Amino acid sequence: MAATDTPAAPLATRPGALDLDRLTVIGVAGAPGAMRALVREPRGRVRTVTAGDRLRPGRVLRVEPRGLVIETRQGPALLPLAAPG
Question: Which of 6, 48, 66, 69 could be 61's S-S partner, Cβ–Cβ 3.0 to 4.6 Å?
Fold first, then answer.
């Protein structure tokens, strides 16, 4: 399982820590090649996604310890894991 040095609880529970108007990656987990990401959508829905899933900006190409790589109209883009502010 991939791990980060940043605990999720402070980020998830601190008011104003996340930009609620954007798609935000709030966590990643799993073995390399089979990782999942926990994302918060702008309307508040929280989902678990894997490679191949569709999100508003595009299709998830892969989940990495640093965030999601998404296929957009402009090409692949990294949506990074949220960091405490």
Answer: 69
